[in-house]
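B., you asked whether I could sanity-check this one before it goes into the benchmark set. Here's the sequence:
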Amino acid sequence: MLAEAPRPLSAELMANRIFSPFAYPLPRQARIVPIVAAEAERLAATFPVVWQAGESGPALVVLRTLMENGTGFAPGTERALSLLPLLFQAYPLTLPADLGGPGTADRPGRRLMLDTACADEPGDAGAPIATSDGKLSRGTELRLRALELFERDLARTRALGAALLRHGLLEPWSLAFDLGAGQRCEITDLLVVAPRVFDTPALAPVMEEFGIAAARLLSLHRLSLFRTGQLLVLARAATARGIAA
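And here's what the prediction gave me:
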């Protein structure tokens, strides 16, 4: 999972103050963020929804910008909480990278982490994770809810990606763009469903296994790829502004 300095959430950390996700660099700047299928509909109209190759198999992700410095976002999306993936709605609370323990939020085996990275743009005084009498703050409860929604759909999302890979339906989607002034965007580990299979029976085994959930996700995925052109325009504009400044 995305984090800069994660630590297991222990009793001693419960008094730490947490701020809006946008107070921290990572949610403002990360260009590729893991998501689950349940949130694809909320994000696909704005960002490409694709897969990222990894050691444990293809992970469903959103590509939020082609830039790595927090620029190049579509206007109005940089600080829109509704367009934050669930993992960033929960930030700085997060899950362990391996998700090795059982569970959902109501199971005692679930392990939570806190990214102890500094908030460099706090907009207010924040709130403690828990008060002195042990009650969780409202902000903490909302973050735990986002993590619960993410974790609840993670196994299904991973299984769907693994099925696409197993049936040979994913292909590399390498992005290589000239952004101007000698700057380039190079992203080489993304995957998409091969366009040729959409009008063939090749998707049938996946549809049979996952039903309407697969049909919905694949439709959103295919349509979302058109957002890449806008991201390229925005990245080139951000590069030009940086040079002018």
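One thing to flag: The two ends are 34 Å apart (CA to CA). Otherwise nothing jumped out at me.
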